[in-house]
């Protein structure tokens, strides 16, 4: 095996979590990595992409942006090929010695597509690091001034795309529902039927111009809730009864 | 009702999430609020307190620190009185027009004691705002380079203190277990009995001098795992099979 000492040292891929919307939710590490990166990789298309790029805009001026397009397909082979292509493009940059910052909304570990690229790039022998960030549900809870979970309360996060939300409703836990489009209205109806609507709050499009902060989920305009986080906690609106009641 | 126009404007309480250990996980907003605060409130005692103060040390030099002591008691009346006392102390500062930053490890909404103070202070008519942060489990996943949840996978967070971890093991979800002391060893034994140990990873004391990063939970030295985050994901060590296998 020949060694070419003039070859540039390979670059590093960084999965940079940028939080759900407010640029002030960026971490110090995210800012450092973004400023130092040679190339920005931006996933997906449309609104999410513009949101992510908007959050980091102050730190990436002049840097080239690579598009990472994932098709909205249920054909796993089609999706896998798209992820292979993204990995090809990024590894070509790493071979040139460039550090690539792949920006991802919320936290990279929570319903992001980042890891499809991360695992491919690592499997090919490149360095990849993940920068954690603020999740949409931590942000939503903070905006509403209410805890997600305290003491002995488990917390169940139910994703946008799960097929069987109903089966999870009986799990004895506080719950976060991440929903978009028509699923928000269906969830509201289901919680109402179960008598749980009063204990649910909702935040839509957090940190963006059209955000909605609703202490009561019932007040959410579901037609304008492009992406919503619904927080369910039994007895949430019975504060002031002391810790005993709140931990029930 | 008399109005005293010379009274100072009341201060604001900020619940500042400082992340699980690495000061670079602080958000830009956390840093701004810490720098601007007049007084720092530090919860609890011992190791957690020192960890939280260590994370923010660069931003609070010279600021007075108020101790917020919560007794380790199962007597709810004793705990409630302690939280009343904390609220009294903080409201006295707010009355002087001082802004108080209450620092809390991880994210304020996730198993923090911050909200016991927040709710009391808000109920008394003061302003209180929450600054969200990086949770210990998002940090642990990032450190290990593995996702918490993808696609349609629900995520269940099981706290340190829950009485009935066993009952939650059958919930069809990826899981985060937050455990300390002897509970870590018991959890390891339980997962081994269920044949799930191979799909669990663990991080102990993240970002601190004695941290342990274990892709395999079995490798964790539970005697040194003061505070551990265990990540369980079915099929986690079968990467490379394509998205189909990973989303099963």
Overview of this protein structure:
2 copies of one chain form a homodimer. With 248 residues, the first copy, chain A, is of the alpha/beta class. Chain A folds into 2 domains: 120 residues, Tetrapyrrole methylase, N-terminal domain (Cobalt-precorrin-4 Transmethylase, domain 1), CATH 3.40.1010.10; 111 residues, Tetrapyrrole methylase, C-terminal domain (Methyltransferase, Cobalt-precorrin-4 Transmethylase, Domain 2, 2-Layer Sandwich), CATH 3.30.950. Chain A contains 8 helices and 10 strands. A 5-stranded parallel sheet of chain A has the order 3-2-4-1-5, sandwiched between helices. A 5-stranded mixed sheet of chain A has the order 6-7-10-8-9, with helices on both faces. In chain A, helix 3 packs across helix 4. The longest helix of chain A has 20 residues. Chain A is elongated, with a radius of gyration of 21 Å. The termini of chain A are far apart. The C terminus of chain A is likely disordered. At the A-B interface, helix 1, helix 3, helix 4, strand 5 and helix 5 of A face helix 1, helix 3, helix 4, strand 5 and helix 5 of B. Strand 6 of chain A pairs antiparallel with strand 6 of chain B, so a sheet runs across the interface.
């Amino acid at each position: 095996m020949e060694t070419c000492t003039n070859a540039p040292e390979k670059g590093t891929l960084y999965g940079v979590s940028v939080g759900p919307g407010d640029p002030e939710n960026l971490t110090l590490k995210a800012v450092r990595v973004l400023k130092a990166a040679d190339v920005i990789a931006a996933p997906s298309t449309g609104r999410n992409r513009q949101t992510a790029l908007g959050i980091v805009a102050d730190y990436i001026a002049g840097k080239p942006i690579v598009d990472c397009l994932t098709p909205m397909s249920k054909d796993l082979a089609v999706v896998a090929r798209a992820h292979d292509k993204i990995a090809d493009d990024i590894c070509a940059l790493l071979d040139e010695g460039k550090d690539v910052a792949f920006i991802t909304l919320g936290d990279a570990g929570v319903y992001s597509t980042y890891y499809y690229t991360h695992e491919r790039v690592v499997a090919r022998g490149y360095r990849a690091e993940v920068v954690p960030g603020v999740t949409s549900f931590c942000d939503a809870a903070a905006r509403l001034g209410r805890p997600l979970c305290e003491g002995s309360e488990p917390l169940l996060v139910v994703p946008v795309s799960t097929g069987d939300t109903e089966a999870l409703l009986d799990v004895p836990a506080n719950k976060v529902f991440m929903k978009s489009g028509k699923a928000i209205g269906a969830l509201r109806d289901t919680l109402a039927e179960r008598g749980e609507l009063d204990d649910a709050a909702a935040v839509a499009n957090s940190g963006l111009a059209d955000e909605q902060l609703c202490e009561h989920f019932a007040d959410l305009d579901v037609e304008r809730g492009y992406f919503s986080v619904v927080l369910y906690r039994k007895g949430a609106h019975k504060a002031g009864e002391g810790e005993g009641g709140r931990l029930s």
